[in-house]
Amino acid sequence: MKKKETVFVCSNCGNEFGKWMGQCSACGEWNSLKEVKSLGKPINGNRAGKNFGGPREVKKVADIETKNEGFINIISTEIKEFDRVLGKGIVQGSVTLFAGEPGIGKSTLLTQLVGKVGGLYIAGEESAEQIAIRVKRLGLKAENFDIFESNSVEEIEEYLNRVNNLYKIVVVDSIQVVGCENVNGVIGSVGQIRESTFRLVQLAKKLKVAMFIVGHVTKDGDIAGPKLLEHMVDTVLYFEGEKNGELRILRVNKNRFGPTDEVGIFKMTEKGLSDVSQADLNLVSGEGEKVGSAVTVLMEGTRPVMVEIQALIVESFAPMPRRVFAGVDFNRGQLLTAIGQKSLGMPLYKYDVFISVTGGIKVDDTGADLAILAAMWSSYKEKPMVGGVFVGEVSLLGEVRKVKFWEKRKKETEAMGKKLIEIKNVKELK
Ligand code: TYD
Ligand code: MG
Predict the structure, then answer these.
(1) How much is the average pLDDT of 255-267?
(2) Topology given in CATH for the domain delimited by 72-276
(3) Is the pLDDT of residue 221 over 50?
(4) Is the CB–ligand 1 distance for residue 100 below 6 Å?
(5) Mean pLDDT, residues 276-303 taken together
(6) Contact 152/200 with Cβ under 8 angstroms?
(7) Which of 223, 268, 270, 274 has most ligand 1 atoms within 8 Å of its beta carbon, as the pocket-test mutant?
């Protein structure tokens, strides 16, 4: 019997299947399975093992030589917000996936990183000249900034092996445009991205260089989403924000060397990405209370950010009323719509519900529940919600609960000259 040579890989979650399916049975995503050449063993299995000829031995921890006794070399990024996200700084030999939508500022931030710390920038998308222009325009040190134009993993391997320990930091921009020879498929295909990442990870570990791999996130999942790569790397960073807005948030999704609950907050300026002040984190336009609007204080890591939630509740003429939530998780939005119907008595089954959050912020904080319901109620009743700022998680029964960092949010609210509304049940919004 002929050995199976291809597998089907979900471009959303990275699971492998023997046959094609319309929906990934692991993550539930539709149309995400792509055919790729089988790697023989799973990608995180050590395929290099076969070179040793013979079975591997089990080692006892006591017998393993640990040089420098658990001391890990940490390099500061020299960018305050970047260090904050990573814990302390960049761990030597670690591989970080740096993901985000095109145009969000990935190349800008990583150019700033190499400009400050020194390193090699592998340019697959832009020419060396374009990058040099950016480096100079941003006023960065140019002496320790090397650029290598390449779209080939083989070339990258050859060069880095040749110069050996010349660099502490290497940026690959982006994984979608580097490929390798021994894999079928065009550059950017799932198979190519998987194999290229695997090889780059091996190279970084071998040379002990800290590597940043840029990955574009696409909404349609047609190009392999970074999810596919998450299990191969040590750290996964997501850079988000609204392209038209100023604020950018760097989140850490996975971190083998530090916490994942801190975020970096930046401002995109004509001089690149810069730190923010607390005043920049007030995203509320100061015109007072409006119909369909409620203000809340979100926590981004350990910092309070004041945002406005807007709701539009309009009579629906569609067979299925529409639910459109920008910046609010769809399921959370559905749930709050149901709570609004039950606890506040809004007949939302015949109304379209639109919700949005100012500043392109994605709400990932149940503390915004109360504000979302308040904005919905305000729009439905066509009267502004007067009296303050809404913070609280809402239960299925409509009870309002205090959320973490309560005191911090309260202090921020008061610093802005406002008052935190304290209610026990959403019914009190009426
Ligand atoms: P870029 O870093 O190229 O995005 P990505 O690599 O994630 O695709 O940044 C793109 C946007 O950033 C671009 O539209 C212009 C803006 N920008 C500034 O506003 N200021 C700057 O100093 C730079 C370099 C870019
Ligand atoms: Mg770029």
Answers:
(1) 88
(2) Rossmann fold (3.40.50)
(3) no
(4) yes
(5) 86
(6) no
(7) 268
